[in-house]
Amino acid sequence: MSHAAQFETTLDSVPGTWERPAKERRWDLAFVGLLFYLVVEYTRLGAMYPVLVPLQIGKIAVALGIIGWILAPRGIARRPLAVLWMDRWLLLFLFTLLFVTLLAVHSDRAWTGFFDILRWLVIYFLITRVLTNGWRLRVFLLLLLLLNLKMAQFVVRSYFTLLAAGVPGWALAKFGVGAGSTGFFANAADFGVGMCIIFPVAGYLFFARESKLIRMLLFASALTFLAAILVCGSRGALVGALASGAAALLRNPRKSAALMMLVIVIVGVVYFLPEASKDRVESGMNWQQDGTASHRIYLWKQGLKMFQDHPIFGVGPHNYPIVRFEHYNENDPHPGPFVSHSVYIEALTELGLIGLVPLIVLFILFFRLNALTRKQILATDPAGKQNFFYCLALGLDLGMIGFMASAAFVSVLYYPHIWLLLGLSASLHTVAVQSSRAAVPEQSPVRETFKEELLVSTTR
Questions:
Q1: 77 falls in which pLDDT band (50, 70, 90)?
Q2: Based on CB atoms within 10 Å of each CB, which residue in 17, 27, 256, 362 is the most buried?
Q3: Termini Cα distance of the chain
C-alpha cells in the first residue's frame, strides 16, 4: 500500500484524529496549572509578596501543567500538519539557540538567555497541548484579557494620581509609567509592547458575533488598553498602535471594523495624547537633538558593527550589553552596558544568522497559520467573518504587527510576547480544524477537498 493510501485509510478509520470528541474536556490539572501560571506571570506575585519568592510558585504552576498533561487522556491522535511545522521550526530554533549559547562570548549570561527562551517554549508546549477546544481557549483569553486590563487601568490611574501629586507632565512622558512591579511590565516601554499586542486582539474581537455583555467588555477593554498606551510615555507603543490600526485598514479597506480601529487610534493620539508626550514625539522626529533617540541610534549602529564581526553565530544570548560595552563603546555619550533597545538588533547580534533564519520562518508560519485558520472557518461557515475565532485570527495578526512595530525600539526577545502569540495561533488552528471537521458531513465536497489538501501536503 502506498504512503498516500495508508494516510487516507488512517484519516478515514480514526475519527479522533481530526474530529472533535463527543464531549469537550474542560477542567483538569493541566488547564488549571496553565491558568495559574498565567496569573503568576502577569501579576508578578513574587514581586508583590516577597514571602512567596522561596516557594517558586511559577515553577510549581508549570509543573502542575506538565503533570496534568501527562495524566490527561489524549483527545487528539494527530495534530494538524500546519501546527506540526510550527513545532518543528521551534525545535530547530531551540537547537540553534543552544549552539550559539555554547559559542557565546560570556557563557554565564548566555545560559541565562537560553533558559529564558526554554521556559517560554515550555509554555508554548502547554498552550498548544492543553487549549485544544473552543471553551478552554475562550477561558484562557478571558483571563489574559482581564490580567492585561488590570495592569492597563493601574497605569492610567497612576498617571493621573502622579499628576495630581504635582509630578510634571514632562517627567511622566520622559521616564514613563510602568505597571508597578518588577519583570517585563515594570518598564513603560516594555509595558507598551504588551498593550500593543492585546489592544488589537480585544478591538477586533469586539466585532465578533457575541453577546452584548461580552462585546461591551471587549470595547471597554480596548479603550482602556489604548488609554494606557497614550499615557505610559512610550513612543514605541504609539508607533505599534498606529501600525496595527493601519494594517487593519490596509488588509480590509472596505470593512467598517478596520476603519473604526484606525479612527479610534488616530483620535486618541490627536485629542487625548498628553501634550508632554506630543512634545517627545516631535523631539524624536529630530533625533540628532533628542538625547534618548540619538543614543538609541548610536546603540543600533554599534550593534550593526557587532553583527558584521559575528555574522553567523552572534555573540550569544544576553551578550549584547556587555560585549558592546567592552569592545564597541567608542564615543559613547552614556557609557554603560545598555541593551540594544531594538528586538531586531538584539536578534542580529546575539543569535547571528543561524538563529535569525528560523526566527524569521516562525514569524512567516505565524501569519500563514492564521490565514489557514480563517480559510478553514470560512469553508464551513458562510458568515464566518463574524465568527469569534475568525476575528481572533485577525486580532492575533494585528497583535503581532503591533509587536513588530513597537519592539523595534525595545529589547524584548526574551520576554513572553512572541511565544504567547505563537502558542495561541497554533491552539486556535487546532480548534478550528476540529470544529470544522465535526461540522462537515462525512461525504461532503468540503471534507473531500480538505482531505485532498492534507494528502498533497503529506506526500510532498
A1: very low
A2: 362
A3: 17
